[in-house]
Write a structure and sequence with these properties.
With 122 residues, this protein is mainly alpha-helical. The protein has three helices and no strands. The mean pLDDT is 92.
Length: 122
């Protein structure tokens, strides 16, 4: 990749991370609503006598809720995708740093070479 292409690639990768963050937040809010609904149902069931029974009932409700399971799987997938994209972003940043260092080294070597030639009289 040319050095001039790195900023655009880094920006694109960072944008993907931002988009994934938005999707993760939306899924987390959806999960919170589903958990709130399960809490509400469990709280008003007459046969449950204590908090442990309500938590157990909440767990049962969430286990059979296909929408909740799908949201959990989506959250796991999005977090993995975000982690991979962050890794790619860091890799691009590191490659760009190396490319800049190599360019500086080449310039320094050219300057050193010119100075050596001037000293020799070439």
């Amino acid at each position: 990749m040319e050095m001039s292409q790195y900023p655009a690639a880094i920006a694109a990768s960072a944008q993907v991370v931002n988009q994934l963050d938005l999707q993760i937040t939306a899924v987390e809010q959806h999960i919170a609503r589903l958990e709130g609904n399960a809490d509400r149902v469990a709280a008003f069931e007459q046969g449950l006598k204590n908090e442990n029974q309500r938590r157990g009932r909440r767990f049962e409700l969430l286990c059979v809720d296909q929408e909740y399971q799908t949201a959990q799987n989506t959250l796991i997938r999005l977090n993995a995708e975000k982690a991979n994209t962050l890794t790619q972003l860091e890799y691009l940043r590191n490659q760009f740093s190396v490319a800049k260092l190599e360019a500086r080294m080449a310039i320094a070597q050219q300057l050193t070479g010119n100075e050596s030639r001037e000293l020799v009289g070439v």
